Amino acid sequence: MMALQIVRVVLLFSLFVASAVGDEIKNVLLLLADDAGLEMGAYLNKFSQTSNLDALARRGLLFNNAFTSVSSCSPSRAQLLTGQASHSNGMYGLHHSVHNFNVLPNSIQSLPNVLREETNGRIFSGIIGKKHVGAADHFRFDFEETEEQHSINQIGRNITNIKLYTREFLRQAKTQSKPFFLMIGFHDPHRCGHITPQYGEFCERWGSGEEGMGTIPDWKPIYYDWRNLDIPAYLPMTDVVRKELAAQYMTISRLDQGVGLVLKELKNFGFTSNTLIMYTSDNGPPFPAARTNLYEHGIKSPFILASPNEEDRHHETTGAMVSLMDVYATVLDAFQLPIINNSVASNKSLLPLLRKEPKPHEDDAIYGSHSYHEITMDYPMRMIRTRKYKLIHNLNYWSYFPIDQDFYTSPTFQQILNATLHRDHLPWYRSLEGYYERPEWELYNIKSDTMERHNLIKDPEYKNILKVLKQRLHDWQVSTNDPWLCAPHAVLQAQGIFKDNPVCLTLGHESL
Ligand SMILES: *[C@@H]1O[C@H](CO)[C@@H](O)[C@H](O)[C@H]1NC(C)=O
Ligand SMILES: *[C@@H]1O[C@H](CO)[C@@H](O)[C@H](O)[C@H]1NC(C)=O
Ligand SMILES: *[C@@H]1O[C@H](CO)[C@@H](O)[C@H](O)[C@H]1NC(C)=O
Ligand SMILES: *[C@@H]1O[C@H](CO)[C@@H](O)[C@H](O)[C@H]1NC(C)=O
């Protein structure tokens, strides 16, 4: 008790000292998209019109090497809020409905809880839009307007509602004169074709003012002529995909304008000059080799870090390799709270990048740990990605790669499936067979083979590189307490007589 109190006194004192020397960050705003990739002008997408996100990118630092450690919604959100890989925090898959994943009951520290407990309630926390993590006690925000109180479309896609709740949150923060942490979980540009196809594949027509679609007063939909669009190289070169992109981009116009509305509220309340703003997405877009995969389009994240401090970097890009797990430490750092020093959570704040671009090293690495998406999708994968190489370990490599419900019904997947069943030609760089059947290990030279087509695992030239990457991946799994550490060919024993000396005991697969 005594020790805790002393810590608090020291904390308050250090906050005071910091503000006295003119540090201007008082609040943190985290803007999170749902299944968005890099479909933004700032990332050189020529078609998707995102003037608000582009303007935010100019105000801040735009990341070219930001990655999520997991390519699924709830696990990704849990990683942001705990700084931990999904295998450490226990959020192995989706939170809602039959999937029923929650973080582990013990010793999980999440941003809203830490911010409240470590400051005696001095920081006001809020979440508006999609939450999708649990259990509730482990992620208790002071202000919550989420799918737990509203329909997900009204709170996650209706940007007028998002604006109004943001206004209410900021009003309360101002009245209480408390620093705040506000997270906005946009539900755009997630698919919805498997649930409400009448609104379009991405719910892009919902609220557009067209007949039967209702209106979102603050949204001016941007329509795209699919005939004009270029298809990214990783997707089938078909008109079906072009139409999907037109729908996705239209939905992104709602996300983008929602970001604009929130930033305008921030400004109207006078918080622009003391709020750190982050924009990112939980995982990549819902297309093949993207979401639910550790391939590049599944993990590459849009990331903007915009600081109110004049001396910080603005309108610049960074090549630093960062993980979305680092958001946790970044938020704590912004509030000048000590970063919990345990090896399971990332302790890497991104704030130093606002001052100075670090020298790139060949060894710079980010890690991936994906176990489920839906409860039936038992396909755990572990990954290390350096600037040049990516190593993926598919732990259940003998089963077919699983497909989730909303991607399954998508026109893109249906076309791939149909072409496969009818043995028709499809202009796609992968085959469904190769997509389903993956080897235990995949090693790619990401620099020269950006499409991840040439598995180098058996190439003797890469023997040493493979050995080093395997060791680094293993070390990371050890230091983050991965229960899958010994999978699939051994059993991890770590309790009782093995407690002080955990071991992987072979299952004898090699002799079968
Ligand atoms: C969006 O929210 C506003 C404000 O609550 C409401 O007037 C409007 O009807 C909503 N739009 C849809 C499509 O439900
Ligand atoms: C964090 O922990 C590591 C290893 O336990 C230790 O070497 C390091 O000094 C600690 N850092 C801080 C800031 O406490
Ligand atoms: C951060 O964590 C790493 C890995 O656990 C550790 O080696 C390092 O000392 C930590 N740094 C700080 C500043 O706590
Ligand atoms: C599936 O392929 C068959 C044969 O090529 C074609 O006639 C049919 O229209 C296709 N269906 C869909 C949904 O694409």
From TrEMBL:
Q: Which UniProt keywords apply?
A: Glycoprotein, Hydrolase, Signal
The molecular function terms in GO held by this entry are:
N-sulfoglucosamine sulfohydrolase activity
SUPFAM superfamilies, per database record: Alkaline phosphatase-like
Give the UniProt record's GO annotations in the biological process aspect. Answer: glycosaminoglycan catabolic process; heparan sulfate proteoglycan catabolic process
Entry's Gene3D superfamilies? Alkaline Phosphatase, subunit A
- List each copy of the Sulfatase N-terminal domain by range: 26-336
Cofactor(s) needed, names only, are:
Ca(2+)
PROSITE patterns in alphabetical order: SULFATASE_1
**What span is annotated as the signal peptide, if there is one?**
1-22
A Pfam cross-reference name? Sulfatase
User: What InterPro entries does this protein map onto?
Assistant: Alkaline_phosphatase_core_sf (IPR017850), Sulfatase_CS (IPR024607), Sulfatase_N (IPR000917)
What family does this chain come from, according to its entry?
Belongs to the sulfatase family.
What protein is this chain from?
Sulfatase N-terminal domain-containing protein
